[in-house]
Amino acid sequence: MAADTPSGSTTAAGSTDRFEDVDWDDLGGLGLPLRTGLLVAVSAIYALVVTTDVFLTEGSVLSGTDWLFVLTLLVGAFFVAWPLAENRRLTAYYWRRFKKNRAAVVSAIYLLVVFTVGTVGPWLIAKPELNVIAAYQPPVFVSVDSSVPSACAGAVADGMCHGTWKYPLGTTSEGKGIAKLVVFGMRVSMQVGLITMLIVISIGTVVGTSAAYFGDLVDEVLMRYVDIQQTFPTFFLFLIVTYLFKPSLFLLITIFGFLGWGGIARLVRSEALQRREEEYIRAAENAGASDGWIIRKHLMPNVSNTVITAATLLIPSFILFEATFAFLGLTDPATPSWGQVIASGRGDLDSAWWIATIPGVFLFCTVLAFNFVGDALRDALDPRSEGDA
């Protein structure tokens, strides 16, 4: 009987291939699937544009961090948004479980706004510039004594300095608009959180699944390396590198990305070890499937729920790392970030509280929102938790 299955695929001559002789990497047919073909095309275009911008253009259009952010968005589009759009029934099922947590839904909406404003905003507004004439301008609907602080760009009435819509969130001691600083800080936070998360998740997943699948010597070598890496003080390495080179967001992302995946590798390995003993893995092995095919098609998809949850909970940690380093003055001063603005206003809390408070509130809400979303995703994606189908 001719059947369009691996166990009974029929050739043009009418002969039937043996099950163990099936080319597992060629099951998709003669042509590439639409997503794979489009991914290859987009990847080639991306590589060409980046190469042209970095090596052939005098004065790069985008920084290294911006190009990494574009790559992160492309990965998210092809490996998160596309599968969700393709499998609408499963997406609807997960959404029903997710929306039971109303705090997570509100948090997701807030994060979507922050992501959109932080991504698009810096292209539409000018970078905040020094303007000492407008120093210490209070936010709209806020009034302060016009003599404390001394400068006031808004209306003065009855000895009070009133806020103006020109600077809706007020200004810093240098006269920089806090609204603009907050928008640029959104971009920095999203870049640090998402790019670093992508690097950590990618390396950690590959190492964890490989260690679990191959076991023995491979597992021992990989996990001992993870032990060594996790004992290495990444913070001190960052200090040394920033001392030797000019501090930049790119350095922070790459150092913490390429040295921070040990915990994810262990988590993925633990989950993959359980999947390794499942019958479908053994069936694929007995059928002659290659190791790479089994890891790509079986192990990685079946640990993806754990990876997605861990990724969501990792992002706020990286955002806090960047804010801490910026607060301590260990990042590029030309790159506006929330931590940097908080540090600039810590000495004026008694007279100009808005300088440090407003970016601090955004930082707090963003970290809290990611935590809420991460908890809700864990509950929605965990098949062992109760939920309505």
Automatic annotation (TrEMBL):
Localisation per UniProt entry: Cell membrane
Topology versus the membrane: Multi-pass membrane protein
GO cellular component: plasma membrane
Transmembrane domains' residue ranges: 37-56, 68-85, 105-126, 194-215, 235-261, 306-331, 351-374
UniProt GO BP: transmembrane transport
Broad class of the protein's primary localization: membrane
Domain ABC transmembrane type-1, residue spans: 186-374
Alphabetical keyword list: Cell membrane, Membrane, Transmembrane, Transmembrane helix, Transport
Family membership noted in the UniProt record: Belongs to the binding-protein-dependent transport system permease family.
UniProt xrefs under PANTHER family: ABC TRANSPORTER, OLIGOPEPTIDE TRANSPORT SYSTEM PERMEASE PROTEIN APPC
Protein name: ABC-type transport system permease
